[in-house]
């Protein structure tokens, strides 16, 4: 994996408080897992940025190495890797994702 791709991923992760690497866009997610991840973030009322891995094969492969996580989507909060859609769903249902966002000082719409 090229250092350039890893650097671009690191820049993206550090450029947004909440960042979702996903397949597609929030309006047109290209897989069910990405769709579920977007729905969770939307329901929590948090502002987030996304990276469409389908637009960049280097990012699509590189993010898996960056996080040491084999699947997409991947959620980052304040530069910290949180997990994929299954972990997001578990944390959301347990109230842990909302708590994490609050602890990290991420503003959420009421």
TrEMBL record:
This is Glutaredoxin. [2Fe-2S] cluster binds at residue 31. Belongs to the glutaredoxin family. Monothiol subfamily. Gene3D superfamilies: Glutaredoxin. GO terms for molecular function: 2 iron, 2 sulfur cluster binding; disulfide oxidoreductase activity; metal ion binding. InterPro entries: Glutaredoxin (IPR002109), GRX_PICOT-like (IPR033658), Monothiol_GRX (IPR014434), Monothiol_GRX-rel (IPR004480), Thioredoxin-like_sf (IPR036249). The keyword Hydrolase does not apply. SUPFAM superfamilies: Thioredoxin-like (SSF52833). Keywords: 2Fe-2S, Iron, Iron-sulfur, Metal-binding, Redox-active center. Residues 18-82 form the Glutaredoxin domain.
